[in-house]
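Hey,
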Amino acid sequence: MSKPIVGVIGNAQIVEKRFSVQAVGERNLRAVAEVAGAMPLMFASVPDVTDIGALLDAVDGILLTGARANVHPTRFGVEPDPKHEPYDSARDDVALALAEACVARGIPIFGICRGLQELNVAFGGSLHPEIRELPGRMNHRMPRLETGEVHPDPAVVFADRHDVALVPGGVFAKLFGCETIRVNSLHGQGILKPGERVVVEGVAEDSTIEAIRIADAPGFALGVQWHAEYDPQRNPINRALFQAFGEALAARRPG
C-alpha cells in the first residue's frame, strides 16, 4: 500500500553568500515520515516555479513550516519596518494561496509557527511583528546567551516554556485529552487579530494565540504557534498532532 504524500514548503536561503536555494528543516521531514506515516515532498515557495493546482493534484496534504522570515506586513494592511526583516514575499504568495486552496478542496493542511500565521493572514487576519512588545506579553523568542547569541543547546532552545489553555470540548482538547498543555516557544511575530474563519482554540498564559482551526473546513486545517516538528517522536502532544494529520492524509487515499 502506497504512503500518503505531504508537500512540505521550502524556504528561501542564500548559501555561500551567492547561491539561492530552497531549504526545509530535516525535523519537518522526519516528523512527516516517522510520525504522520507519510512521504514528505519538498516544494519551492516560489510562485513562478510551483504551480499550486499541479502541486495539489500530486499530494495528499500540505505542511506549512516555520521560517526565519516574517509574513510581509502589506499582506494585512500595515507598512513594513526594516527592523522586522527579513521578509519572504515569494513564500507569502505561495503559502497564502495554498491555505485557501487546501481548505476549499478539503486537502489536509497543517501550519506550524509561521504556518499558523500564514493560515491566519490567508483568511483575513493580522499579525504583530513583535508579540513581546504588547503590554503584558512575555518574550516568546528563542533563549539566548548573555552575549546575545542563540543558545547552542537545542534541548534548551526547544524546551517547553509555557502553558497553553485549550478551549474545553474543542478539537485540540479532544485530540490531547486535556485542557492544558505545555509547549516550546520560538517566535517574534504572532496573531494580533484572528481572521474571519479562524477559530482560536488555545492561548498562552499571556493571551498569545497558540492554536487555531479554520471554521467549516471540510478537511484537517489546524495551526499551532509552537514548533511541533521538533520532537513528535517522543513528545506526546506533538506526536498526537502529527498522528492526527497522518490519519487525515490516509483518509484521502483511495482504497
